[in-house]
Design brief:
With about 325 residues, the protein is mainly α. It has a single domain, classed as Hypothetical protein af1432. The longest helix has 24 residues. About 40% of the residues are buried. The model has no long low-confidence stretch (mean pLDDT about 95).
Length: about 325
């Protein structure tokens, strides 16, 4: 019995009855030899962590566009916070922490430069073809775009959790459901923290009806939400929250939409971003040969050009997209 098999055996001894066991995975699209040290979910986590798409998250916007300061969240730090919250919950509930972490690390790989502003632009551009949605793009990244078109060949459970991490969707595993809630917990609390740091809101402005339930500081709210999920999900084949805490969380989210997500200080530059994305799309859809070779290869393999141009733009970091736009669109000084 090798080390992986021992770990798989240990999962059945330690994890709860509702956990997703690595040796019972629905598997990968392409058969491959198993690792002798790591379980399939550990291997998926490592593949995501070492991917190019994961590294690019460090220069992608979470909420604030190009903030002045070192302590604002990026898409990468958001992802790490989601992973940590989710692992804490999974461990407490005796669920599979490796599967949970893999889903969490991969859930935002398909996000565009400049966050939801970039996503809105690509969605508008491609609306007649089904639109653009970052959760679907995250799956496309791991299935098609990474490793020069080969994809990462992840297990079905990880891909399902990545695809279904949004509010209106339902993952097939409890581990995926944990990530779905942990994503909201992370961005609600971090967005409040960043908005306070930016001077957009003050802690005292959060309605007392919500702070009385959730707490009046970021660490208190995180503690309340995580504990509530654990206490109301323990021993159940479901991940749930108490009605009062769940309602308070979504009310806090609504408060953020009213005070932060539409605030001109935080979001005033977004129309410029959307215009930039639209201009980049128009440039490349008429000049396919200007894209890097790996994207040209996708078109030669039969992928629709509009899909591949979206792939290229979605892969860009904030800084790269701005520099590229400047290089393409802004006249250069010249001399004779």
């Amino acid at each position: 019995m090798n080390l992986r098999e021992k770990q798989e055996q240990r999962e059945h001894q330690i994890l709860g009855e509702f956990a997703s066991f690595a040796d019972e995975s629905l598997g990968r699209d392409r058969k491959e030899e198993k690792c002798d040290i790591r379980t399939d979910y550990q291997r998926d986590r490592d593949r995501i962590l070492h991917s190019k798409a994961f590294r690019r998250l460090k220069q992608k916007t979470q909420v604030f566009l190009s903030p002045e300061g070192d302590h604002y969240r990026t898409r990468l730090t958001h992802t790490l916070e989601v992973a940590q919250n989710a692992r804490t919950i999974a461990r407490a509930l005796l669920l599979n922490e490796d599967l949970t972490e893999a889903i969490a690390l991969g859930h935002d790989l398909g996000h565009t430069p400049f966050g939801h502003a970039g996503e809105r632009a690509l969605n508008r551009i491609t609306s007649e073809y089904g639109g653009f949605h970052h959760n679907e793009q995250s799956v496309r990244v791991v299935e098609r775009l990474e490793k020069d078109g080969e994809g990462l060949n992840l297990t079905k459970e990880v891909r399902d959790g990545i695809l279904n991490h949004q509010t209106a969707l339902t993952p097939m595993t409890l581990e995926g459901k944990i990530v779905r809630l942990s994503d909201k917990i992370a961005y609600i609390n971090s967005d409040i923290d960043d908005a306070i740091r930016a001077g957009i809101i003050r802690e005292e402005e959060i309605p007392s009806a919500l702070t009385d339930i959730l707490g009046d500081a970021t660490n208190q709210r995180l503690n309340t939400l995580v504990h509530d999920i654990v206490h109301h999900s323990e021993g159940k084949n479901e991940i749930s929250m108490s009605p009062a805490v769940e309602q308070a969380m979504f009310s806090l989210r609504k408060f953020l939409f009213e005070t932060v997500y539409t605030n001109p200080t935080a979001k005033g530059e977004e129309r410029k971003v959307e215009h930039m994305i639209e201009q980049l799309y128009e440039y490349y859809i008429h000049r396919l040969e200007k894209m890097p070779e790996e994207f040209g290869q996708l078109i030669r393999e039969g992928e629709p050009a509009r899909r591949v141009v979206c792939d290229y733009i979605a892969c860009m970091s904030d800084r790269f997209s701005v520099n590229l736009y400047r290089e393409i669109m802004i006249p250069k000084f010249w001399s004779v």
